[in-house]
Design goal:
The chain is an alpha+beta fold. 33% of the residues lie in helices and 21% in strands. The chain contains 16 helices and 18 strands. The strands form 4 sheets. A 7-stranded antiparallel beta sheet has the order 15-12-14-13-17-18-16, with helices on both faces. It has a 5-stranded antiparallel beta sheet with strand order 5-6-10-8-9. It has a 4-stranded mixed beta sheet with strand order 1-2-4-3, covered by helices on one side. A hairpin with a 4-residue loop joins strand 5 and strand 6. Helix 1 packs antiparallel against helix 2. The radius of gyration is 23 Å and the shape is globular. It binds flavin-adenine dinucleotide and zinc ion. The site of flavin-adenine dinucleotide has 37 residues, from strand 3, helix 4 and strand 10. Zinc ion binds next to loops.
């Protein structure tokens, strides 16, 4: 009877059940799943979401929101007994306000569609990540997604001005703010950004747009020491100012495997160096911007912040340089089976973090391979570890415990950008204090007293 009521709200085409529910609703992109939903709800409007949640709230029915299912923390995969609420039919781009530089979209809009629509109207929406073709704005908001251009434009949190959210009891909370400055009370949108579907369903958002940059220049550099990489970052920030749009670091362990993933890819630099750095600028004047970066590079070479470097402003070569960084998933795949991590470490402690981690891993798993890259401008490291042959002496800790203990000791975060979901929930204590976790639990209880929204994700349910 209860599911009949849900079906009635949704109407024909508004839901899937039984064999019509394909694996994409139960598994993440790695194919991992833990259960099978009995019903996939595909509402079209916030009003429908509201009616559905009102019923689920009354019945204590647990619900898992889904966007493009590209999340990497197992936040959107349903357990048995949970119903899926997919935003896949709420994809409208409702309005673009060119004077204000904002766009209002439904939460199921695909990131790439939003980017293209912005460009058609003379703007960019700067959030960008490898999953752009399938991830949704709602999923980007729910995970507070980051990516390659955070250094310049911020994470999804900085790019979101307003939200419409349906609360657990079905209340539609509309807060489609369009202004940068709004101190009229608590900024409630921040409760939902990064909450991974545990506090409300995002149904609409007002996004910030930016002018289309007229120039894009890239320097691909090699450095001899981590100290020079950090110095180079500060130098680049000071010298390039607001035009600096990416500072991506690849450890040699990564660079050396690029051709294992893509044999035909031509590497920008030959020669062995411990660190490679991709520096990008974008700005309003190609002539000026390219001279600025080239000039900076000359000084960096003279001062030995970089050992070797190549520079380009040609679109084809810019893309070719970026490709080396962008194929990180393929490089990781050469390490199958691997353990992946997404941590943040204060730059002052990063070298000590890496040394401690390398030491601990080599000590417990002598055969292990550790590959690292990072959005270093944000203190964000992506680690990929293949443990190799099982060690003679079984280690006292799992690899997750090793990584997260060392992360905690360096006052870092166990999730820089991918979120907690089911995957990292039990490790939250390594980067959040007891008081913080307790307040998260209190908020969850107040906002979702029946525990129906993504229970057990992020915080214990
Ligand atoms: P889903 O995977 O569907 O959901 C993610 C979480 O949000 C789940 O907990 C889900 O329940 C919840 N959720 C989804 N929609 C809503 C909604 N409307 N309301 C409330 N809750 C909702 N992330 C980065 O930060 N930076 C990167 O550079 C990056 N690169 C990636 C590259 C690849 C190739 C892939 C596959 C992923 C990458 N990611 C990256 C992970 C990133 O979190 C997701 O790609 C994206 O932000 C999730 O969007 P989605 O629509 O697929 O969400
Ligand atoms: Zn990343």
């Amino acid at each position: 009877v209860f599911t009949d009521q849900l079906r009635t709200i949704l109407g024909p085409g508004g839901y899937l059940e039984g064999d019509d529910i394909s694996a994409r609703y139960s598994a993440d992109i790695t194919g991992y799943s833990v259960g099978q939903p009995a019903l996939v709800m595909r509402p079209r409007t916030a009003a429908e979401v509201s009616q559905l949640l009102k019923l689920c709230h009354g019945a204590g029915q647990q619900v898992v929101p889904q966007g493009g299912m590209t999340g990497l923390s197992r936040g959107g995969i349903p357990k048995d007994g949970e119903l899926v609420l997919s935003l896949e039919r709420m994809t409208d781009i409702e309005e673009i306000d060119t004077r204000n530089g904002t766009m209002t979209v439904q939460a199921g809009a695909i990131l790439q569609t939003v980017q293209e629509h912005a460009e058609d109207n003379g703007f960019i929406f700067p959030l960008d990540l490898g999953a752009r073709g399938s991830c949704t704005i709602g999923g980007n908001i729910a995970t507070n997604a980051g990516g390659n251009r955070v250094l310049r434009y911020g994470m999804m949190r900085e790019l979101t001005l307003g939200l419409e959210v349906v609360l657990a009891d079905g209340t539609v909370m509309t807060g489609l703010n369009r202004v940068v400055k709004n101190n009229a009370g608590y900024d409630l949108k921040h409760l939902f950004i990064g909450s991974e579907g545990t506090l409300g369903i995002v149904t609409r958002a007002v996004l910030k747009l930016f002018p289309i940059p007229k120039s894009q220049c890239v320097a691909f550099c090699a450095s001899d020491s981590f100290d020079s990489v950090i110095e180079l970052l500060h130098f680049a920030k000071a010298k390039l100012g607001a035009s600096l749009s990416a500072f991506e670091v690849m450890w040699q362990s990564y660079y050396d495997r690029v051709q294992a993933a893509r044999p035909n890819l031509k590497l920008p630099l030959t020669g062995d160096y411990p660190y490679y750095v991709l520096i990008e600028t974008s700005g309003g004047d190609e002539e000026l911007d390219s001279r600025l970066l080239e000039g900076a590079l000359e000084i960096a070479l003279e001062d030995q912040l970089v050992a070797d470097a190549v520079f380009t402003k040609s679109k084809a070569q810019v893309d070719a340089f970026w490709e080396v960084r962008d194929i990180s998933m393929e490089v990781a795949a050469t390490l199958q089976p691997y353990h992946g991590y997404d941590v943040s470490i204060p730059l002052s402690g990063m070298q000590s973090f890496v040394a401690a981690l390398e030491g601990a891993v080599a000590g417990d798993w002598p055969d292990a391979t550790l590959v690292m890259i990072g959005h270093l401008g944000d203190g964000n490291l992506h680690l990929c570890i293949n443990l190799g042959a099982p060690p003679a002496q079984p280690p006292s800790q799992t690899i997750d415990e090793v990584v997260y203990t060392i992360t905690g000791r360096h006052i870092g975060s166990i999730s820089a950008e991918h979120g907690i979901g089911l995957l990292k929930r039990d490790y939250l204590r390594f980067s959040r204090t007891e008081a913080e976790r307790s307040l998260m639990g209190t908020l969850k209880e107040v906002m979702d007293p029946q525990g129906i929204l993504n229970p057990g994700r992020v915080v214990r349910g």
